Amino acid sequence: MTNIDDAPSVNELSATWSDIQGDESAYRDDSYDREVRDCATRLAADPGAPTAYVWTLGLTLMASYVAGLPGEGVADAAREALRATDHALRDHPCDHATHPYRTHDAEEDDWHLPLLLRLLADETADWDEDRPREEWLCPRNVAGYARIALDILDPGSVPDVPPRLPADIRGDIESLSAILNLYPDGDPDDDLASHAGNLSLAADAERPGRLLVARAISWHVVSGMVRRKSVLDDLIEAVAKTLPHYADATCAHERHPEPEDSGPEAAESGLRLSSPAGREIYERDREDWGHPPLDELLCPVHLAEIARETLTTLREGRDKLFGDRSTGHLDAEYLRADGRLDIEKIVERLDHKHWNEKYADDLGLWAARRYEGADVRERVVLFITAYQAMKISYPSPPYAVTRGVLDMMRPLAAASRPADCAHPDDHPTTRYVDIRHGLPQVYAPDDFPATEHSRSLGSWTCPRFTAILAQGCVSSLERLDETEGEGDYR
Q1: Domain, as residue range, for 80
Q2: Facing residues of 335 across strands?
Q3: Is 81 within 8 Å of 121 (Cβ atoms)?
C-alpha cells in the first residue's frame, strides 16, 4: 500500500471522499471543507510528485461539492492545486498512445473512482481494469484528471476532457423525472414554471433543447395535475416566442425523426441537448444507440412543427382546464327522448371505477348546471351526481369544473339545518351499492321497486343530509383551488 507521509491510508481517504462525492445535498459542510483544503494543500505542495494521482483523484471525487457552495476560499484552493498539477504534468514525456481520462464517462465511471484509487495505491491488488495500471499512473493521465476536476468546477473552462453534463442540467433531469413520474419533491408547479423562463431566455444553441423540454412537459401540465393557470400561460408565451426564430426555415430532409413519446425520457433528452456538453455526448454516442444526426433531430423546420403542435396542446388544454366548459351536448347523453334523466346510465357512471374517470368532470358540471331548474326528485339525482363525480375525477377536477360545482354546492352547504330530521328513516349513504339501487328508486319509484337500499324522499332531500355532503364537497374543492379569485385564474 502506498505510503503518503502523515496522511490517513488511501482506503480511508477514498472512503471519505466517496461519501462527499455521494452527498448531493451538501451545503457548506465544515468537515467537507477541511477534507478539500487538506487534499488541495497536499497536492499544491508537490503537484509533480509520484503520489499526485491520489490527491488529484481526491479533488475529482469532491469536485461536485466544491462546485456548489463550499466555505470561503475552498474552491480557490482546489483550483490552484489542480491548475498547478495540470501545468506540471500535462507535457510529461510518455510512450502511451492514449490515457484513461480521455474516455472517462461521467455517468458511468465517476462512481468507480474510489475503488480504482484503492487499487492503484495497492501494488499487490489484482488488476482487472481495461487499461493498464501504468496508463492510469502516467503523469499525463493525472493531468487529464486534474482538468476533468477543473471542468466540474467551471464547466467548459478547459480543453481536452470528455464532455460532462453540468450540475444544473443533471438536477433538472432528476427534478422533472420525479414530477413526470408523479413523485415530486417540493412544489411541482414552481419547478415546471421555471422551464417556461428557461425557454424564453434561451440562447440560439440552447433553444432547440429547451423547446423539446416544453413539449415533454406540455402533456403533464394539461393533464389536470397543474392547478395554476399561470404555468400554462407562461409556457404558451414562451413556446410562441420560439416560432419567429424558425419562420424562414427550409430543409432538404425527406423526413424528420419522431421525438421521444415518453414524458420523462423526452424531458431528459431536451435538457441534455440544451447544453454544449449534452450535444457533444449525443454525437459521440448516437451511432451506438442508433440515433439520428443532430442536424435532422434539431432541424429548424422540424422544430417549428414541434412548436406549433405544442402550442395547440397547451392552448386546448388551457381552455379545457380553465375556460368556459360546454356541457350542452351532454343532454343527448344523459336525457331520454322524453326529457327525463337516463337514470341507469347516470348511476352506472357514478361507480368509482377507473373507466368512469373520463366521464366524471363533464358529468359533474352538467349536473351542477342543471340543478337549479330541476324538480325535487331530479334534484336528488343531480346533487348526488355532482357530489360523486367530484370523488371520481382524476387526477382532480379542473378549475372550469370546480367553479361550476362550487356555485351549486356553496348555497346548499350554507343553508340552515334543522335540529331534528323530519323523516323517520336513516339518511342514505354514499356507498355505491346504495347509490346504484337507491337513487333510481327515489327518482322513478314507479319504475324501480323499493329494496333494502331504498330511502324515503324526505331522507334524500333532508337539509341536514344535503348540507353535510355539500360542505364536504366544498371543503375538498376549495382546498384544490386555494388561489381562486386571485391572479392565476383571471
Answers
A1: 10-153
A2: 341
A3: no
